[in-house]
Design brief:
single chain, mainly beta, seven-stranded mixed sheet, five-stranded parallel sheet, 14 strands, 11% helix
């Protein structure tokens, strides 16, 4: 095995930049879950801090999902019901389709659901959930 020594400062800077992008930038990309053409069953995805995360039409969210923090936004365009552990972490879920939650369901940390004239439905037997309407329309804080 031959070790190559890099003496050129421009080459060293390029290598360091590529290493930085490789190891530190992936966490800044958004996450798209599901598909608009094929059904997928998702295992509790965690959406990173970014504004263009999305859950597409045919994603089965049987184990819930997590938003990384209060700066995270995710658009819900799914046709299937959501069950499992939902952790909004103070972030925002933006509805682009009606959202129906099924049992078993648990909210770990609340957040904001922007209704955009779409409905969301909770299962009958979900104790200790408080919905606070915010500022008109159908925007809620859970």
């Amino acid at each position: 095995m031959k070790i190559v020594r890099v003496d050129n400062k421009a080459t060293q800077l390029t290598i360091l930049t590529l290493l930085f992008i490789t190891f530190f930038m992936p966490s800044s990309f958004s996450l798209t879950v599901g598909s608009n053409s094929a059904v997928s069953v998702e295992t509790q995805p965690t959406f990173p801090t970014k504004t263009d995360n999305i859950i597409l039409g045919f994603a089965r969210m049987e184990n819930g999902f997590l938003l990384a923090d209060q700066n995270t936004t995710c658009t819900f365009q799914d046709f299937f019901h959501v069950a499992g552990s939902v952790n909004l972490s103070g972030g925002t879920l933006v509805l682009a389709e009606d959202l129906t939650f099924d049992n078993p369901l648990g909210f770990q940390n609340g957040g904001i659901i922007l209704g955009n004239a779409f409905a969301f439905e909770l299962p009958r037997a979900i104790p200790n959930t408080t919905l606070v309407s915010g500022g008109g329309g159908n925007n809620y804080r859970i």
